[in-house]
């Protein structure tokens, strides 16, 4: 359970507590109710806020309580995705980026004193499982398109603008645009998906152009992004505290349009703030597999290098070994010269796909307008 109100209803109905997992809840409002229960066997409390008297009662009456660790910069039992403002909290203060939860989480994950520490490994695994659970709920029922691409595309470049307008077109087609959540082409696609119009994209591009890269100053890069984000328009604040979706014209309820799935494994690459929900992981392997697995509408690959190539062939493996009767999501590479000459991935994909269903799923294009047609018709 992720909601105190939901748990209160459960208690009001007199339903059994055995088997419940209370994740990241403030149990203060229900302390007296729980304090009157004599048999709490099978109840598991995962993090959250537990008053001292209630904690003692829970432990002595059969509940299992996993407290948070104050030495970890992030909440490992979190029930919702991150937002940019949460990860960059304190960015404008004297400590700059180094004082933010994002930077401190990376430093904690790289602390050599914790290398081989089974407890630290357990906390990372719990965190990543909690994020995966929140991500699964956040994308449920949506058609998700993954946009992969290198971090090298700078704000102000043609490739950055192209990725931004591609993100806008995909989101406008009703798709949830998911990226690796970092800078470059990833940031651009998340920006486009978050924008309400082409004019808004152009205004944001103008705002971002003076700070083309996160190097050498992540703080200036992030602050410029927050300024551009504010100009995209107001957010709708949801009731459950989860990342805020953008209201779509004519939609009965707001739907998320932009998702980032970054990792602290690449801690030198800060997360972009244009994703409405950010599923940030300690494990890069869990992050990559989860992003590709949830891209049920297909994957678009903008020009990139080693990391992007790894993602291409991670998906290619799924396509290659898929059962013959399975309808495969499209894999679309954008940039004919890049993927045939600069980094010749396309010839190898064609060789692997020959005579298999995979051959119908792979595409190579230059025009981003073709991409939307392939994805929406795929």
Textual characterization of the structure:
Strand 2 (44-46), helix 3 and strand 3 form a beta-alpha-beta unit. The chain has helices spanning 4-12, 31-35, 52-60, 84-87, 101-109, 118-139, 158-172, 185-194, 198-208, 218-231, 284-294, 306-321, 336-342, 345-353, 368-377; strands at residues 21-23, 44-46, 64-66, 144-148, 176-179, 258-260, 277-278, 298-301, 331-334, 362-365. By secondary structure, the chain is of the alpha/beta class. The strands form 2 sheets. The protein has a 7-stranded parallel β-sheet with strand order 7-6-5-4-8-9-10, sandwiched between helices. It has a 3-stranded parallel β-sheet with strand order 1-2-3, covered by helices on one side. It has 15 helices and 10 strands. The longest helix has 22 residues, at 118-139.
Features:
single chain, 378 residues, alpha/beta, 7-stranded parallel beta sheet, 3-stranded parallel beta sheet, 10 strands, 43% helix, globular
Question: How does the SSE layout of this entry go?
Answer:
Blueprint: H1 4-12, E1 21-23, H2 31-35, E2 44-46, H3 52-60, E3 64-66, H4 84-87, H5 101-109, H6 118-139, E4 144-148, H7 158-172, E5 176-179, H8 185-194, H9 198-208, H10 218-231, E6 258-260, E7 277-278, H11 284-294, E8 298-301, H12 306-321, E9 331-334, H13 336-342, H14 345-353, E10 362-365, H15 368-377
Parallel strand pairs: 1-2, 2-3, 4-5, 4-8, 5-6, 6-7, 8-9, 9-10
